[in-house]
Amino acid sequence: xxVLERRDVGVVIVAGGSSTRTGxxxxxxxxxxxxxxxxxxxxxxxxxxxxVVSVVCVLPMSHAxxxxxWIFQCDIDRLMIAPGGRTRTExxxxxxxxxxxxxxxxxxxxxARPLVGNETIDRVIASVRGGQCAIxxxxxxxxxxxxxxxxxxxxxIPREHLWRAQTPQGFPRAVIQRVHGxxxxxxxxxxxxxxxxxxxxxPVAVVRGSERALKITDESDFARAEALFMLPE
Length: 233
Fold this sequence. Notes:
7 helices; alpha/beta; Spore Coat Polysaccharide Biosynthesis Protein SpsA, Chain A; two-stranded antiparallel sheet
C-alpha cells in the first residue's frame, strides 16, 4: 500500500473543556459558528481525509454518555467518544486509549480551532512520517514586551525564534503513548502535548500553521471565526 493509500492516522479531538472564558451556559465547542457547531467543523475535516482511520472526540464527562445528536453527522464507524479528564493531559490520555491499533500516527487537535485546514494537517503528518514529532505553529510578528505587576515594561523580548503553537500536534503512536505514560507516572501535566514532550526531553519540530486557525477563547473570537470562514484558505 502506498503512502497516499495508508489509513493509519488516528485523531484525538480535545473538546472536554468547561468554556468558562466565553461566558454563558453553552460550551464553546458546541456553539454554532459558520453554520454548524464549532466541534463539528473539525470532526468533519478530519473524517473527510482518506488517511484517517479513527477520530476520538473527548467530551466533558457530563456529555460523553449522551453526546449531542449532530456529532454523528460523519462516518460513525470511525467515530469514538471518550470522557474528558480533570486536566487536558488526562483528557488526551483518555482519547489515546480508544484509538485502534491501526493508528500508527496520532494527531491531537483542539476543538476550539474549527478552521484547521488540510494543508496544515498534511504538513504535520508529513513531518511525523519523516520520523519526528511536530506541531503546527505560526511565527510571532508582534513586538513582545515583558511587564511588571504595575504594568510597566521591564524588557523587550526578541521575537526571532518565537512561534505561537497551534494544533494539530502530531506524534508517532509509540512516542505519544510513552509520553503520557511517563507523565502519569511523574504526575506531570501541561497545556499541550508538545510541552509534555519538552518536559520529558523529547524533541518536537514546528511546521507552518495558518493565521486562519485561531483558537476560540472568548466571546469576540466567534465573530472573528465567522469572518475568517468567509476567506479562502
